[in-house]
Amino acid sequence: MIGALVTLGGLIVGLLLGAIAPLSIPQVYSKYFAVAILAALDTGFGGVRSGLEGRFGLAVFISGFTANTLIAAGLTYLGDQLGIDLYLAAIVVFGVRIFENLAKIRRLILGRFWTF
Q1: Using CA atoms, how far apart are residues 104 and 48, in angstroms rounded to an integer?
Q2: Quick one: three-class SS letters along 46-68?
Q3: How far apart (Å, rounded) are the C-alpha atoms in residues 52 and 41?
Q4: Which residue stretches of 1-116 are H helix?
Q5: φ, ψ dihedrals at 33, nearest 5°
Q6: What does the radius of gyration of the chain's CA atoms come to, in whole angstroms?
Q7: Centroid of chain to Cα 83
Q8: Per the count of CB atoms within 10 A, which of 2, 43, 81, 100 is most buried?
């Protein structure tokens, strides 16, 4: 439970810092940042879910974040080199996983605090 709270707190702090920071991303790199943000969100929500399930592992979390981000950036780069929008594959996969993790988080929280 503490791991989930730390992960959720880090995610919220990161989102707030990102929203406040006066940073503009060049159009050329927008696809890379989009998949990196989705990889980070996917990993963050996966960490919250695994924390709520009581099986959070920091090494798994960090390695998942690194691997997801590198693979997504690699797909985007390869797609740019081939002239194919391969980053869309990463966006679809991360989008589906984010919604799956959110559904599981919602069910875990409702199951703990609300009995039907």
Answers
A1: 10
A2: HHHHHHHCCCCCHHHHHHHHHHH
A3: 16
A4: 2-20, 30-52, 58-82, 87-113
A5: -70, -35
A6: 16
A7: 26
A8: 43
